[in-house]
Amino acid sequence: MFNLPTAYLLVGLMYLVMPTVAWAVLSGLRSRSAWLWCTGSALFGVGVVLLGLRPHIAEWAAYPLANGLMFLANLVRAQALLYELQRPPWRRQWLLGLGAGFVIGYECLRLGLDEYPTLRFLWSSTTLAATFFYISLLCWQIGRRETSRSAHWVAGTYLAVGSALVLRSLAVVNGVSEPNALFGGWDSLFTIGASLISSVVGSVGFIGIFLERARHNDLATAAERAKRAENERLSAQIAQLDRQRSLGAMSASLGHELNQPLTAILLDAQMGLHGLAQNRLDTAQLHKLLHHIEANTQRASHIIERIRSFIRPVPEQYKPVELGQLVQDVAQLLACEARRCNVEFAFVLPPTAVWVQGDDIQLSQIVLSVYRNAIQAMMGQPEPRQITVTATPVPGWMLLHFCDTGPGLTLEAIAQAGQPFFSTKADGLGLGLSISRTIAERHGGTLEIANHPQGGAQVELKLPAPH
After folding, report:
1. Yes or no: domain 4-225 corresponds to CATH 2.120.10
2. Residue 66 belongs to what H/E stretch?
3. CB proximity list for 35: less than 8 A, separation 6 or greater
4. Residue 450 in contact with residue 417, Cβ under 8 Å?
5. Local structure of residue 56 (DSSP, 8 states)
6. Class level of CATH domain 318-467
7. How far lies 386's CA from each of 72, 224, 404, in Å?
8. Is residue 397 helix, strand or coil?
9. Are 47 and 73 in contact (CB under 8 A)?
10. Which pLDDT score, from 0 to 100, does residue 363 have?
11. pLDDT for 119-175, tens place per residue?
């Protein structure tokens, strides 16, 4: 024959064992909501155990304490779910006040109106049912927010327990059942069965919420990492294409720049051959011609190497970069174009080297973009046309200022400069400064554009100083 107190003891023990298992799994997370959920489940288990021991213990423990613990346990579990939903939790005073109010109301009905046991029973069962429904609602909201099947399972289970208590209350009101928790009718069996299932599903489901969240977080992190890697790959390709486009637009100037040392090499070689043929070259003259040929060959080689390194796709290589040398090397790359436009470079550099940690090719791309914009802005402007480059070390940073003597920028251009596809030039793509700003940010720095107080535009490149 089915023994109802034994069933309550079994359910109570399950409510004690399962939160212990859950806490063993979740304790490493140091989650307040996990601690509250496991504590509440354990308190509910103690209340159910006292209910099963009702024939053998004092009335104050079997009635008000048992029911009070179960009511308070559900409030604590609801508190845990409020933390999970990131909602303001109830104050501790409110929890204790609600628990005390429930016990006082129960005792008043038990002692003052003992001839009406149905009221006492309805007070405890409907109040507990309301807390189960509230827990179910909170779990359902978590499930919807996080697309968590575990939360939906917990919500469904606690909805079943609350429904079982409501059905039992209706059975008592209609005289089908007795207002006694130890009455072994079908409604009691249904309530105990639902409670037993909730003891397991509640704890396992709560663990599942954390595991599903961890899985979702891992997937989101992996997706974000893949997106970031793809963006970096595309950014690198766009930057390389922009470098190639820039050098393509400079091809005539670069050809002229390269033609100078090659022409000098040819002339020196012809003079040497002619002198040897006429037997009019001594050792010193031959040495001088060969020295000129060697110097111009190295000059041509440096120009070619700068072009090759600037356009070839290479992975980022962060290493010490001397900014003073870099800004002068890029100026040499634009020397012919600058001469053609009557633009001069002026460098105001510290007496000691200015070092930063970065990718020299990418930093060169920033400088080249700034130079070319300045040269194009000064075309048609009265002379002198000058680009002044100033390097200033400040605590923790290295500042590069590029100032030109052009017309400056409008307020609209300053506000939108550096945004993708915005350009003040009719044939501009609007990518140069946008790419430059992205490169600066990847180096931990900034790129700002403004008008210089004395006229012209000013670009400030701010890079972190090496530690």
Report:
1. no
2. helix 66-84
3. 23, 80
4. no
5. G
6. alpha beta
7. 79, 45, 6
8. strand
9. yes
10. 85
11. 888 888 889 899 999 999 999 999 898 888 888 988 998 998 899 888 888 888 888
